[in-house]
Amino acid sequence: MSTIPTTDPRRAGMRPCQSMDEVRAEIDRLDALLVPLVVERLGYVAQAAGLKPTRDAVVVPWRIEDVVAKARLHARHAQGDEDTIERIWRALVDISIDWERAHFDRLRLRGTGS
Ligand SMILES: C=C(O[C@@H]1C=C(C(=O)O)C=C[C@H]1O)C(=O)O
């Protein structure tokens, strides 16, 4: 079996590290880039809550599969592990659905939704 793709330090853009301090500095650097993107994604999910007609409409199974399939494709292009990316994205979508439901309920309680 060849090297697991996402741990291969020869992969383009990845720095081979000699210490845990270096590894953690790289992880911190990436988290600083990732968190604002996740915050932005959650902002669009919150907008979805205002556009859906019913609470049942928050969960859209075909769209979940579409999002996961696209995440797998991005992982393939980045030479990453598709199964691991799928697990992360399913967790992200699950949490996003909870977030959207909370926004849906808040909007309707305030009486500003439809
Ligand atoms: C944002 C949506 O609402 C939900 C959240 C999704 C997501 O986080 O990508 C996908 C499907 C929906 O169940 C949507 O319907 O597109």
TrEMBL record:
Alphabetical list of SUPFAM superfamilies matching this protein: Chorismate mutase II (SSF48600)
Query: E.C. number, please?
Result: 5.4.99.5
Q: Give the species.
A: Pararhodospirillum oryzae
| GO biological process terms, semicolon-separated | chorismate metabolic process; salicylic acid biosynthetic process
Name listed for the protein in its UniProt record: chorismate mutase
The EC category is isomerase
The keyword Isomerase belongs to this UniProt entry's keyword annotation: yes
**Is the keyword Isomerase assigned to this protein?**
yes
InterPro entries from the UniProt entry: Chorismate_II_sf, Chorismate_mutase-related, CM_dom_sf, CM_II_prokaryot
- Chorismate mutase domain span: 14-104
Listed GO MF terms: chorismate mutase activity
Q: Which keywords, in A-to-Z order, does the entry hold?
A: Isomerase
